[in-house]
Amino acid sequence: MGYEPKYTITSRLAGRLERIAELRTEIELSPISVQWTPRLERDAFERLAHTSTAIEGNPLTLKDVEILSRGGDLPMVQRRYKKEVLNYLAALRYITDHSGKKQITVKDILRLHSIVCADALERDPIGAFRDYQVVIRQHRPPKYQEVPRLVGELVDWLNSKAKDLPPVMSSAILHYRFEYIHPFGDGNGRVGRLLATWELYRRNFDTNHIFSIDEVFWEEREKYFGAIRSVQEAGGDMTEWLEYVAAAVFAALSQAWKRLEAIQSKQKGADEGLILTQKQERLLTLLRHAPLGINEIMKELSVTTRAGAHHIIKPLVQHNLVIRKGGHKTGKYVLI
Fold this sequence. Notes:
Layout: H1 11-29, H2 37-55, H3 62-69, H4 79-97, H5 106-117, H6 147-158, H7 167-181, H8 188-202, H9 213-219, H10 221-233, H11 239-267, H12 278-287, H13 294-301, H14 306-318, E1 322-325, E2 332-335
Antiparallel strand pairs: 1-2
Helix pairs in contact: 1-11, 2-3, 2-4, 2-9, 4-5, 4-8, 5-8, 6-7, 7-8, 7-11, 9-11, 10-11, 13-14
């Protein structure tokens, strides 16, 4: 029969979706110089990695996550906590690189789980569905024998009927249904939130990847978990959950808007008038994921000489977009 979500589009939900559309349009039309986009995306990724792992009990602060994201280390922190954050950042890069994917498959979900849980899993198996029963607080997920069928039905719905819904709704439904099935022994929360984000990316809702809804989930954890529980309490009706997610998305967009306004004031300063070459744009995009040394930059940009690479980098340094950190031979360039 397939999967059919149950919900009602209330006036409250419709109003929130309309407000989201209006604010999203303002953000998309905001005059932000292209060189700022990698910084905004990196900031959003760090916030996503921090809050989504923190929801699951990771104790690292946003500052800690920033250090790891930019190539630093936290020698006094347990390896597992660092690995959870680094894995999440890698998973965000994965869904960004595949944001144009037309259809999500079961294989994609298993791949995402293997990235999220590599060397950071409490309960096996990794990259495969659970083969045992689990109980999550008051929720008893479906039997493990049913998991492959249920995930398959969810994927079929996502690739067909979900396309007729606003991205915020299809993302929220995917998020809840995945958590309800709870297909893995560990990592379900992180993978579920990543899938929800991926759906927004695929539907071109957040084309520049600059806002973090997980930040809102973290700030109001009790409301987040309460909204998830509301579905079962309502006999599977997702209306209250959809209303909550719509409010959270609007809040996340509002936070992103405030950051954009702050950047607009900065644009009037040091980096005003900077026109980027294609290689400089490419370099800023690469640096949003990880710091790079001069040899790595030469390779990525197909530049044959160090002088040529420095010619590309110098304006970015002068306009306070990039800084070099580390020793003479081991130093790397990072976004400021």
